[in-house]
Design brief:
With 465 residues, the protein is of the alpha+beta class. It has three domains: 31-156, no CATH class; 163-248, Phosphorylase Kinase, domain 1, CATH 3.30.200.20; 255-447, Transferase(Phosphotransferase) domain 1 (Transferase(Phosphotransferase), domain 1, Orthogonal Bundle), CATH 1.10.510. The chain has ten helices and 21 strands. Helix 5 runs antiparallel to helix 7. GO terms for molecular function: ATP binding; protein serine/threonine kinase activity.
Length: 465
């Protein structure tokens, strides 16, 4: 891996290791002092720490700086401190809460000692003769209790935090043995990072063909994304030949497992649930297109890449083919075709249909919607006697003629849901990108009640062959 890339995507100097007695140590940058880890919560991105030395480490205060990737949790017992460098005097040990002696620091004057003064105390009452002021720090937890081995919490904000590196590497290599599936660029395993958090680790294929581009691409993209309908990146591991992306585990697997006909009562989710799932997917894609600083084009929207949590909330996943562009960029240049056959928009194959843009994801979403309606792969044919008809065209012809969808539906309300999903899917199937609605409009259509959605222009009139 390119070292410059690693430095730009990690927290330089922070690292985890294990002691001989199986304690986890958090090493701080340029420090011989270590903080011990009591617990890591990957869900809330918190780490609980304590230390074993007699005096709090001087570097501990740097965690309050805005530049620190690890930050103290806000709390009612946080105080402001001023650090002083002073000649050592026995009487300075008797101020308790107000004056705390700190551990040795590699930049300290060897003849002096560093002290932390709580600014709530009157400096006039503290013997600071011959002392030099070093720095002011704000919102530090009460270090007088921390010195008594009290646990303190830190928070990290980026999922690419280097804290995950050694921890995840150990778990990936020794405990991820439950295979969940195979993706284009790697294998996905189920694992456990803590007693509370199950994860899915995508172990990327050991290939030098693209110099790890698939890994850096997905890592860089997922670090920007925070949405209920997009899978959450917990951490990553990149060490030697091991490259892995660690995601939240979603127990119901992919939508592909539930794409069955309404006749199959054992696996059919019901039309209300399918409508909720379709709306959630649309909101996730709309967020990727409009909700981030950069527009994210997924290029591989399909049922296999839609994961479902315990409540069947859908999450868009697998960003190995994704590309970033500015939000005002109307076209994207591509040197190779991206996506899965059957879901790839026409313009990705040929510019005769228009420019590649976020509308390419809209086309892929159409395929997914029509599969949800038909309970089958849309590119298989519908057999009716000796004729063979393209499934989306067959659906369009039924709607245009005012016929029902010839899908087993018992309730009239369910029939309206199926018809709405089909109409929205047909709006997204338009061959030319300019004729497809943006995902914001798709969301609005799916949220509408009633049966007043207009049927789109026939996209098959000149493509029946």
């Amino acid at each position: 891996m390119d070292p410059s890339w690693w430095r730009s995507h990690s927290y330089h100097g922070f690292d985890l290791s294990c002691t001989n007695d199986n304690k986890i140590v958090l090493k701080m940058p340029a420090s011989s002092n270590n903080l011990f880890v009591e617990r890591i919560d990957y869900t809330s991105q918190e780490i609980e720490i304590y230390y074993r030395s007699n005096h709090p480490p001087r570097e501990f205060f740097d965690l309050s700086l805005s530049s620190s990737p690890l930050q103290f949790m806000p709390g009612p017992h946080n105080y402001n401190y001023t650090l002083f460098s002073c000649p050592y005097l026995e009487e300075r040990l008797s101020y308790g809460f107000c004056l705390i002696k700190l551990g040795l620091y590699y930049l300290d004057n060897p003849e002096n000692q560093t002290y932390a003064v709580n600014t709530q105390c009157s400096v006039d009452r503290i013997a600071l003769v011959s002392c030099t002021k070093l720095h002011d720090y704000t919102s530090i937890p009460d270090i007088s209790t921390f010195a008594m081995k009290k646990i303190m919490k830190l928070h990290w904000s980026k999922p690419s935090c280097r804290i995950a590196k050694r921890w995840a590497r150990h778990r990936i290599t020794s405990q991820f043995k439950d295979k969940l599936g195979q993706e284009a660029y790697g294998t996905v395993f189920k694992g456990k990072l803590s007693s509370e958090l199950l994860v899915a680790a995508k172990i990327l294929n050991n290939s030098n063909e693209n110099n790890g581009e698939d890994f850096t691409n997905e890592m860089g993209t997922m670090g920007l994304v925070h949405h209920v309908n997009v899978v959450r990146l917990v951490g990553f591991c990149a060490d030697g030949f091991i490259r892995a992306l660690v995601y939240e585990f979603l127990p119901n697997g992919s939508l592909q497992n539930f794409l069955s006909s309404a006749d199959n009562k054992n696996s059919f989710l019901g039309w209300d649930k399918l409508q909720d799932i379709a709306l959630g997917i649309a909101k996730g894609i709309e967020y990727l297109h409009q909700g981030c600083d950069h527009r994210i084009l997924h290029f591989d929207i399909k049922p296999h890449n839609i994961l479902l949590d315990q409540n069947f909330t859908p999450k868009v996943s697998d960003f190995g083919l994704a590309k970033l562009c500015s939000r005002d960029q109307s076209a994207l240049s591509m040197t190779t075709v991206r996506g899965t056959m059957g879901y790839i928009a026409p313009e990705v194959f040929s510019r005769n249909f228009g420019n590649v843009s976020y509308k390419s994801d809209v086309y892929s979403f159409r395929t997914l919607l029509l599969e949800m309606v038909g309970g089958r792969k849309n590119f298989k044919v519908i057999e009716d006697s000796t004729s063979q008809v393209y499934f989306p065209e067959w659906i369009y012809n039924l709607l245009e003629q005012g016929d029902d969808l010839r899908i087993h539906i018992e309730d009239q309300g369910d029939a309206k849901i199926a018809e709405k999903l089909a109409i929205v899917g047909l709006w997204c199937v338009q061959w030319h990108p300019i004729d497809r609605p943006p995902m914001k409009n798709v969301v609005h259509m799916l949220e509408r009640e009633g049966d007043n959605l207009a049927i789109p222009p026939n996209p098959f009139c000149s493509t029946s062959n």
